[in-house]
Amino acid sequence: MTSSLEEQCIAKGVKMTGQRRVILRVLSESTDHPDADTVFRRAAKIDPKISIATVYRTVHKLEEVNILESHDFGGDRLRYEQRPEQHHDHLIDVRTGKVIEFTNPQIEELQQRIAQELGFRLVGHRLELYAMPLKEADKPKAAGHPVHARATRRKRAR
Amino acid sequence: MTSSLEEQCIAKGVKMTGQRRVILRVLSESTDHPDADTVFRRAAKIDPKISIATVYRTVHKLEEVNILESHDFGGDRLRYEQRPEQHHDHLIDVRTGKVIEFTNPQIEELQQRIAQELGFRLVGHRLELYAMPLKEADKPKAAGHPVHARATRRKRAR
DNA sequence: TTGCTCTTGCGAATCGTTCTCATTTGTCCC
DNA sequence: GGGACAAATGAGAACGATTCGCAAGAGCAA
């Protein structure tokens, strides 16, 4: 069990403030992968005077110290999750946007090998599977990366 | 050898205009993965009165008819490439931003299997390897997806 | 407290990308 | 070849997630 986010922050020398405590609480209570605005709305329920800018600044700081991780599934806004102790990849349910985490050592290995064969040292990767729940697999989508087809506005990061 | 982009367009009923011809020419002469602004600048060299809006519109249309594909390596702007006849993934040289294409049937298979085991039907995926050229692998990067750490402004799409 | 640095709020600024609308162009048809 | 019409274009405004600037507040060590 990892220590509370607040403890982790203190351990990393991140100054604790009221707003940060609220945001940390929101994050630790989130089991989904919320985007900045969602974090903001949840935080605002606890402290209505918190500012969206503070949310952005805080998640950046948390990324900096490796407490949070951001992903941009689907190319609209960035979504956040606590940095997992064990690396995992994501499967995105294209019907609902829900994210399922999984790990697969074989894939990890293959990636290393491929990079090496191309003359590189792997420093990071992104693997996302976009999928439809089995059962009634309708929706005659054209083809290609379905994600890009539905994105709207994009995001930034430091 | 695939027919010229212009022929492909005609075959798909895409109305040919002077601007589109210019953009198609730029795209077919590009061996890199240019972003919209790069396409615009290259096109402007041929037809200085072309508008950036036209580039965006054209590129969207081409995606619609499956002639182009977009990717958002690194989360800044979308980058384009002709839709390959054979699917491939990308390795991004984090030092230069250059993109290397590769294919690996084993990985494709694994992905299918993983989705299936989770109760889904794979409809798309994204696999990107971020890597440093071997030789002098310095740069003490913290960890995590290095991409997100360097992105700046984000993008949109339909 | 005092001092000092880091943080916060608010609103303005960014900046890829998209939209609006008046105008031009491609295409089909006679 | 001339019209008719839908579709495409240019220019600039609009959008929207994210970031910045700056004045006011808050941790925290001494």
Describe this structure in words.
2 copies of one chain form a homodimer. In chain A, a hairpin with a 7-residue loop joins strand 1 and strand 2 (79-82). Chain A has helices at 5-11, 18-29, 36-46, 52-64, 105-117, 146-150, and strands at 68-71, 79-82, 89-93, 99-102, 120-133. With 158 residues, chain A is of the alpha+beta class. Chain A is globular and about 50 Å long. Chain A starts with a helix and ends in an 8-residue tail after the last helix. Helix content of chain A is 39%, strand content 20%. Chain A is built from 6 helices and 5 strands. In chain A, helix 3 crosses helix 4. At the A-B interface, strand 1, helix 5, strand 5 and helix 6 of A face strand 1, helix 5, strand 5 and helix 6 of B. Strand 5 (120-133) of chain A pairs antiparallel with strand 5 of chain B. Chain B binds a DNA duplex (30 and 30 nucleotides) through helix 2 and helix 4.
Please describe the topology of this protein:
2 copies of one chain form a homodimer.
Chain A lengths: L4 H7 L6 H12 L6 H11 L5 H13 L3 E4 L7 E4 L6 E5 L5 E4 L2 H13 L2 E14 L12 H5 L8
Parallel strand pairs in A: 3-5
Antiparallel strand pairs in A: 1-2, 3-4
Helix pairs in contact in A: 2-3, 3-4
Chain B binds a DNA duplex (30 and 30 nucleotides) through helix 2 and helix 4.
